[in-house]
Amino acid sequence: MRYLVTGGAGFVGSHVVLALLDAGHEVAVLDNFSTGHRGAVPAGVAIHDVDLMDYQATVDVVAAQPWDGVLHFAALSLVGASMADPFHYLRQNYLTGINLVQACALHGVKKLVFSSTAALFGGPERADPIAETALVQPGSPYGESKFMIERVLHWADSLYGLRSACLRYFNAAGADPLGRAGEDHGPETHLIPLTIDAALGRRPALKLFGTDYPTRDGSCIRDYIHVTDLADAHIRALDQIATRSVVYNLGNGHGYSNLEVIRSVARVSGLQVPWEPAARRLGDPAVLVADSTTLRRETGWQPRLGELDQIVETAFRWREKNPRGYGSN
User: Fold this and answer.
1) Which of 10, 70, 280, 294 is deepest in the core (most CB within 10 A)?
2) Is residue 32 part of a domain?
3) CB 132 within 8 A of CB 248
4) How far apart are CA 218 and CA 242, in angstroms?
């Protein structure tokens, strides 16, 4: 099969590219490299250096050849930044998403897998773990922008037959077990790489945002899913949307607290992790844990690297070997 991956030079997108290649598919990457890395794209993979805000350039790529499917990862993705600059997030994620969906709907693409988010479930009145039937109540403009694209995909299916899979995943983490790809954001905002860098002495003491949440140790609880398991779910989702669109919540189904992450990094690395408490961040709920029952039942998906120490160990090995991320090579 031939697949186009938008944002394929980013963290999750690059791991999905590897999974598609490992499965024997032909892959091309569309990315404007505003946050992605050319070094994250495997040799031999075609690169389209295109900004999805440019509708005609997007159409030119989508219409240039028949694609068996498109996987869409290109988006702004920081909850805190979206609270500080909401209109930028809403505009950027919505326009880039609708440009891509329109191009696919009008030019023969029949399958699209969308990188959605657990940030759709930001309301206080919900239970954990969170199933697909939970009330969608985004707690940030970032989450709202993702839900807007889910609605665009609903109408693209109803009116044009573009089948989609909206994967609402929780906290992607870890690195390719073979060391081919890892996490390299600038600036880095994710807890596990920040904790690893603090342990390695590459940054000051870790700031732990909120120690007074109503959780077992006062810190936030999140469902961490290994990025390779995440990529496997995308491959399985492509098979599901041959005849219908689907929505799946995607996570391990088990939450780990921020303090438990710190302890895991200390165990895996054998190093002390310097940290200090800080104020809560706007838009951060106390607990986010996925109910992935539907995905497991319909696709047979199971996390293979579901333990926190496994996730941290792959991330630690990659960051230790690549101290400047993709700039190390």
Assistant:
1) 10
2) yes
3) yes
4) 44
Residue 75 is assigned to a structural domain of this protein: yes
Residue-range definition of the domain harbouring residue 288: 191-222+254-328
Q: What average pLDDT score do residues 166-179 get? A: 96
Residue 167, domain CATH: 3.40.50.720
**Residue-level pLDDT at 285:** 82
pLDDT band at 79 (very low <50, low <70, confident <90, very high): confident
Residues 78-112 as b or e (16 or more Cβ within 10 Å = b): bbebbbeeeeebbebbbebbbbbbbbbbebebbbb
| 201: region left, alpha or beta (phi > 0 left; psi from -120 to 50 alpha) | left
- Give CA–CA dist 25/19, Å, rounded: 9
For this structure, is 142 an active site residue?
A: yes
Catalytic residue of the set 3, 89, 142, 248: 142
Mean pLDDT (the chain) is 95
Is 294 inside a domain boundary?
yes
CB 325 within 8 A of CB 166: no
| pLDDT tens-digit map of 10-26 | 999 999 999 999 999 99
The single-letter DSSP state of residue 121 is: B
Mean pLDDT throughout 164-172? 96
> Is-contact 142 93, C-beta < 8 A?
yes
List all residues 6 or more positions away from 238 whose beta carbon is below 8 Å from its beta carbon.
3, 69, 111, 113, 165
Domains identified in the chain, total number: 2
